[in-house]
Amino acid sequence: MYNFVFQNPTKLIMGKGMISRLSQEIPAEKRIMITFGGGSVKKNGVYDQVKNALKDHYCVEFWGIEPNPSIETLRKAIALGKEEKIDFLLAVGGGSVIDGTKLISAGLLYAGDAWDLVVSDKRAANTIPLGTVLTLPATGSEMNGGAVISRYETKEKYAFSSNNPVFSILDPETTFTLPAHQIAAGIADTFVHVIEQYMTVTGVSRLMDRWSEGILQTLVEIAPKIRQNQHDYNLMADFMLSATMGLNGFVALGVPQDWATHMIGHELTALHGLTHGHTLAIVLSGTLRVLKASKGDKILQYGARVWDITEGSRDEKIEETINKTEEFFRSLGLTTRLSEEGIGDETINEIERRFNERGVAFGENGDVTGKVAKEILLTRK
Amino acid sequence: MYNFVFQNPTKLIMGKGMISRLSQEIPAEKRIMITFGGGSVKKNGVYDQVKNALKDHYCVEFWGIEPNPSIETLRKAIALGKEEKIDFLLAVGGGSVIDGTKLISAGLLYAGDAWDLVVSDKRAANTIPLGTVLTLPATGSEMNGGAVISRYETKEKYAFSSNNPVFSILDPETTFTLPAHQIAAGIADTFVHVIEQYMTVTGVSRLMDRWSEGILQTLVEIAPKIRQNQHDYNLMADFMLSATMGLNGFVALGVPQDWATHMIGHELTALHGLTHGHTLAIVLSGTLRVLKASKGDKILQYGARVWDITEGSRDEKIEETINKTEEFFRSLGLTTRLSEEGIGDETINEIERRFNERGVAFGENGDVTGKVAKEILLTRK
């Protein structure tokens, strides 16, 4: 086990009807800006529940935080928030709305352009308090301090680090009406978040391994059932809780982490606008195959415990495990090949070029350079 | 899944050499009382590490918080703390020292006798901040708000609810020199904490089930290895982290809980002074056997996933699973029968009488009355 410091102060408020608790969670004197994405919360009743709970609070609304939230949009929210002297933020939506609102919460206390905060290496510690009402399980943003912000004019997408939400309200019923593609991408996103924190080496922490495998086993068990019936409360609660627990630090205690698949996936989103979770489903098998020399023991453990793959030679078991993983993503209804999305060599070369230009290398061993990223993508054509 | 609200703000600082961080974690101007148990921390070097880290802080020491901390001892600590105008507490030891210090932290801000706080139904919210340096993994007290306090003059032992420690430092190396019986009792305690939060019904939360099973699987895997070599760092880190995660709320999200085994075990400690974890190893098989009508499905799931018991009739599998659990405790070096500790009918009758007198009933269905507690204990003779 590696040394670590862990603290996650977010208050998690989960269950049917819990949105009504908003009025208790936000002090009466606060000037709130509520942030939204598109209009889906107006159709599924979440908007009415939120407004009803906050009917005695001062609220300003900001609409239109897009998937892969952009600095261009967020600058407008920050300007409105400064004008309105906002001192509490409530993000209502999925990971993109929450991520975007994290930048707003830092930007409201920053005099310059908020893009400075994104490209800075430092965590933004000075922030307006932020609560969330989650409607799309996927990113874990509701219980961590991270965010990913895009800049459309330059097709860039970077991680940004800030404070945790003070509270997050998760009502599984809000997921009953989600489009199938969003659920599929959310399951893939959760799955790969866990893989990034797990798929390195064996023996560092038996407990963290079990907990990561526990999330993966849960996702494998519930995914086909959700495709049958996404109105089963306990099923959707399992999905929602798995997504939160997949990226709130709980499975990352004292273990190495990878994140190369994410870094490559972000480029696919930046260049082609693919849904984040979908890009991970495309890239992951390539990462596992190209890095099987260093990740082999862990792939075997994962194959045995999550997929019950125990027969055959070492290489056969590893191959079968990687194939099972790709089949799982396909069973969600996602494509897993670049060619299926019309993406070819030009993009692969551009991603190699970007990694080289930035001088970056990812993965637990810092060996996923531009060249290795290209190798990974070439297996995904 | 049941509705729930979860928040655990404790900062967990884990790893080799982390005790030296004490000076950063406690503000320089604080007047600290450091609380200890017996003298073991002077032998294993922990005392020197703590004193060295805090050499520039004002510190008062209070020694002698005993296993099953007593109100009689804690009143003395509270009197000293008031006299010294203490505004920060540091508990250095195992669960008993931490539990006792939780009562001190509330007692320092309470004008009356601190026993009032123990017998009150309310959580003690008004407390002096408390940090811990854990030296004996078992109770999870380092990352929760609970405590158990005894009163020797009346042989009573009650749960007490307060605030979480603000930080807890866990260095696995501090466990290398623990006596074998304490390690055995610590493993049993952790095991049964998880069982209390798990062994009810199936299907409420697949994820919480997997995480509870993950701790149990880890304990089953590491226990025999620890008996071979308790100087293996990763092994002791797994034990230490499992104990913390076993009772910090992380496996209790939205699921029913039992706690009948604990309530019966507390009486065995109060009446006979047995180590807490040891009492649980004695009682648990009885709880499972007597309540197998309501817990049967979950016992089968536990048997299959933790003990790989999948052959035979339903009843055979349940019996084999309960027997395996008792064998596990015996493999730790603990006795599992009342007669082995010289405990007979008189104690069983006294426990029934106490439960009846208090009008209490425990378990997820509230059906473990005095009569049922007696049935459970009769199977453990």
* Broad shape of chain A: globular
CATH architecture of the largest domain in chain A: Up-down Bundle
CATH class of the largest domain in chain A: Mainly Alpha
Oligomer: homodimer
DSSP helix fraction of chain A? 40-55%
Total tally of structural domains of chain A: 2
Summarize, please.
The structure is a homodimer of 381-residue chains. With 381 residues, the first copy, chain A, is of the alpha/beta class.
Write out key terms for the chains shown.
Rossmann fold, homodimer, two-stranded antiparallel ribbon, 15 helices, 381 residues, Dehydroquinate synthase-like, alpha domain, alpha/beta
Please tell me about this protein's structure.
- The structure is a homodimer of 381-residue chains.
- Chain A is of the alpha/beta class and 381 residues long.
- Chain A has 15 helices and 8 strands.
- Chain A has a 6-stranded parallel sheet, with helices on both faces.
- In chain A, a hairpin with a 4-residue loop joins β6 (146-151) and β7 (156-161).
- In chain A, α7 crosses α9.
- The longest helix of chain A is centred in the middle third of the chain and has 23 residues, at 206-228.
- Chain A binds chain B through residues 1-18, 172, 203-208, 210-211, 213-215, 217-218, 221-222, 233-234, 237-238, 241-242, 245, 250, 253-254, and chain B through 1-18, 172, 203-208, 210-211, 213-215, 217-218, 221-222, 233-234, 237-238, 241-242, 245, 250, 253-254.
- β1 (4-14) of chain A pairs antiparallel with β1 of chain B.
Helix/strand layout:
The structure is a homodimer of 381-residue chains.
Chain A: E1 4-14, H1 22-25, E2 31-35, H2 40-43, H3 46-53, E3 58-62, H4 71-83, E4 88-93, H5 95-107, H6 115-119, E5 130-134, E6 146-151, E7 156-161, E8 167-170, H7 180-198, H8 206-228, H9 233-245, H10 260-272, H11 276-290, H12 292-307, H13 314-331, H14 345-358, H15 370-378
Helix pairs in contact in A: 4-5, 7-8, 7-9, 7-11, 8-9, 8-12, 10-11, 11-12, 11-13, 11-15, 12-13, 14-15
